Amino acid sequence: MIILEAKNLYKAFGKTQVIQNLSFTIKEGEITSIIGPNGAGKTTLFNLCTGQFRCNSGEIHYGGHRVDRLRTHQIVRLGIGRAFQICNIFPELTVFENIRIPVISHLRIGLHFLREAGTTESVSELVFQILENIGMLERKDHIAGKLDHGEMKLLDIGIALSTEPRLLFLDEPTSGMTPDERKRIMKLIEQVCIKKKITLVLIEHDMDVVFSISQEIKVLNHGQLVAEGAPEEISQNPQVVEAYLGESIAL
Amino acid sequence: MKKKAAWTLLVLIILCSVPLFIPSGFVMDMVIQVLILGLFAVSLNILIGYTGMVSFGHSAFYGIGAYTLGILLQKTSFTIPMALGAVVVFSAVAALIIGFFCTRLAAIYFAMLTLAFSQVVYAIVTKLDSLTGGYQGLIGGIPKPKVNLGFATWDISLFSNLYIFTVIVAVISLLLIKIIIDSPFGCILKAIRENPQRTSYVGINARRYQLIAFVFSGVFGGIAGALMAFYVSGAYPDFIFWTTSAEPIFMILIGGLNTFLGPMIGALVLFLLTTNLKAHAELWGLVLGGILICFTIILKKGLTEFFYGSNLSRWLGNFSRSTFGKGQDVR
Amino acid sequence: MDLVAIINCMMNPSSLIMLLVNTLKLTMLLFLLASGLSLIFGTLEILNFAHGSLYMIGSYLTYVAIKRMSGYAFALVFVCLAMAIFGFLLERLLVRRIYGASLFYQLLLTYGLVLVLDDVVKLVWGSEYLTVEIPQIFQRKPIVFMGSVTPFYSAFTIVVGAVVALFLWIFFTRTKLGKTISAMSEDQEMLQALGINVPLLYSFVFALGTCLAGLGGILSVPLLSAYPGMGFSVIIYSFIVVVIGGLGDIRGAFVGAFLLGLVKSMAVIGFRDYEELAPFALMVIVLVLRPQGLFGIKHA
Questions:
Q1: C-alpha–C-alpha distance, residues C105 and C121, integer Å
Q2: What was the ipTM of the complex prediction?
Q3: In terms of pLDDT, which residue wins out, C69 or C230?
Q4: CATH number of the CATH domain containing C188
Q5: Distance between CA atoms of B101 and B108, rounded to whole angstroms?
């Protein structure tokens, strides 16, 4: 079943056409990776799908709703989440407090003025659960801005997961990671996302990661869809291999 | 909640027993002024310290509260509780209108538009001179009708009763602000301060929360203004002039943005400075300005680390990044 | 609101010209201030709340210079140089310490500066209004055109403003230094990597901004006199102009100054009661329609 569909997207910044006539579909429950060189428009695509930018023309449909004209928070409420390439957390708050924010939003108690956030059990329970899922429970009182890179990434993903999205955009989840950290992230993605049948759309440059977990790969260049298909097809597509994957690629 | 109630009760008891044990006019005057100015500053800190919105027009609400109370008590037969209720309503409405326009803007424009609106309020108030006394202000004193408590009437024109009334209203207002800050709503405000973009990515309509914070801030600022009008028995255009907006900012700077009662400490410091420098009125600007300059340079450099820990300096960095819109690296 | 009066004025060529002249005079004065403010913000990313006080210092220095020197031209040059040096020193000593600091701290530092400068001026020159006569060279017959009467000094002000605007435009679009400064607001690191002395450029920009503010003070002091606190009324208007035009954009500063000048001039004719409110109403309208100002860049 198609969960996300984009039709004829165009986006330009000034005179630069960043996305041109881009159309694609994402199937529910699948893991799709979007690859392509820098400047191909991958992050812009994420921004278009999540309401940060308005497309100049075209439509985006998610789960039966038309979302290209909605604002980010409205799109998120429909069930989309996003983790960022450059960690986008709440730096002065503790890890616990960082997760508490999306939980409060998800439980729709953001406008409750009279309760005390610290002693609301329903909130704390959920936060602890999520922290355990992402493996950050022992770090709960750490100031988020002081975490090391790998843990910050985990936290970033954790924040995105806390709103229980059906579709999750992950922007370069393993960038800048040591091999151990990479394993941790991949484990998290597999256990939590796959277990919960969250549809994943990743931007990734690490081809090992891309080919090991993706069910579908889409190749972007100059804002256009150059190729799409299962990993085996993509790895054998001569143009793609030559231009983007380099000559040796181990499957 | 219980802890808050206990603390509030303790503070109320201590402050209310001052007239009994230290019947000094000076001390009671100091408590009243520090409480009122402190409330004014704490109400602004809802915006600056907690939500990260720097408003330069807070005097608008101070003035609206003062004039609302003064006009209603002078010209109508409103009782004091009713007048206070009207202060809340008017301040809230004004804050909704002003906030609606201002919260649509990025940080710098926000600061300037709030300043502009406070000048608009100033212009309106001074123009409506039949109602407000124009540039002279609301003179002739503000009547203090006896408050009907059911079992007795309370004469607030007596100084010690006025003191107790001010203490009760101020402390309860502060309690309410603390409750709001500690609620889930308060958590979201802090998140908006840190990273407004991410809050929208967790489903929060940041603008709506900013507007609500603006309204709360305006309401409590109005209450502070009303209490001051009551105390000095008058309301003056100076209450609304932009220089009045600078005082709570000064208090917040000195006392600390990140703590709930920090601005209150700043209020105490400002009060002590004003009373001690009254003799040298010509140098007031020089001293206050000099202190502001020194503090700004030092705080930015390193006193932060010393007093409040390195959190504040990191927050400053983030805040400036978000102010100038260089938040995310977008390809 | 007296629409009839406004329409009458626009129908009548002589009063229309006088309206335009008045508008342009205000435009130029506002532009001198707003351009400096916009420049400082666009390049240094500092919102200089003390800009009005710099204008005030310019006026006071003019008072001093005209009394002590023979010749308006000398006085002009002296004050411009003095302001540039003052601006340079301010930047080196104070302003550069808050680069990158949050808006809160910038406004606080510059507000502290306002308080200090106001009191310094009071201590040195007292609190009364200091009047400066319109210099001899400008005491000529007014220019008469199609029934309108324009004082010579007003014409001079407009010409100076136009020349400065032209100079700024040429400087920023045609000269190497000017283009470098424009680039600074984009990418300082790149410029530093190219070996350009960025800190010196920063000082230069601030000095230029201060000089422009001082020039505004020089031109307006024969009309408005010098007094402590004169900075405030002007800073609010400068902010309005810069906000309408879009922060950091000098074209915007000019357009904004023109709009504000127009509104104020029309207010005198048609809606005197709301003369003070009119500029704010203009700002609110512009910001509602275009939150980033007319020429500003929209942030996501």
A1: 24
A2: 0.89
A3: C230
A4: 1.10.3470
A5: 14
Same domain, A54 and A170: yes
Residue-level pLDDT at B316? 54
Q: Are C263 and C279 in contact (CB under 8 A)?
A: yes
Residues of B with a Cβ under 8 Å from any A Cβ are 1, 179-180, 182-188, 190-191, 194-195, 197-206, 209, 212, 311, 314-315, 318, 328-331
Q: What is the mean pLDDT of residues B158-164?
A: 85
Mean pLDDT (whole number) for C123-143: 82
Chain B nearest CA to A93, separation (Å): 8
C108 touches chain B (CB under 8 A): yes
Q: Between chains, do A113 and B180 touch, taking CB under 8 Å as contact?
A: yes
Task: Report the domain count for chain C.
Answer: 1
Q: Which residues constitute the domain of residue B55?
A: 2-241
Residues A174 and A69 in one domain: yes
**Closest-CA residue in chain A for B310?**
A92
> With contacts defined as CB-CB under 8 Å, which chain A residues touch B92?
none
Nearest Cα to C228, choosing from A206, A108, B285, A145? B285
Total domain count, chain B: 1
Q: What is the mean pLDDT of residues C80-103?
A: 87
pLDDT in tens, A18-67: 888 999 999 988 899 998 888 788 899 999 999 999 889 999 999 888 99
pLDDT more than 70, % of chain B = 88
Chains that touch C (3 or more CB pairs under 8 A): B
Whether A173 and A158 map to the same domain: the answer is no
Query: B308-326: per-residue pLDDT in tens?
Result: 444 454 555 555 444 443 3
Considering only CB atoms, C103 lies closest to which of B54, B283, B299, namely B54
Classify C63 as helix, strand or coil: helix
Interface residue of B210, B326, B331 to substitute, partner A, most A CBs within 10 Å:
B331
Range of the domain at A138: 89-164
* Those residues with Cβ within 8 angstroms of residue B259's Cβ, 6 or more apart along the chain or in another chain: none
Residues of chain C numbered 232-261 and touching chain B (CB < 8 Å): 232, 236, 239-240, 243, 247
Calculate mean pLDDT across residues B249-273: 86
Best of A46, A105, A121, A126 to disrupt the B interface (most B CBs within 10 Å) is: A105
Please judge whether B198 and A159 are an interchain contact, meaning their C-beta atoms are less than 8 angstroms apart: yes
Residue B97: how many CB atoms within 10 A of its CB? Answer: 12
Asked if A61 and A125 sit in the same domain, the reply is no
Rounded Cα distance, C91 and C99, in Å: 10
Domain extent, residue C72, equals 3-289
Domain co-membership, A51 together with A173: yes
Residues 6+ apart with CB under 8 A from C180: C191, C196, C201
- Domains: count for chain A: 2
As a whole-number percent, the residues of chain C with pLDDT over 70 amount to 96
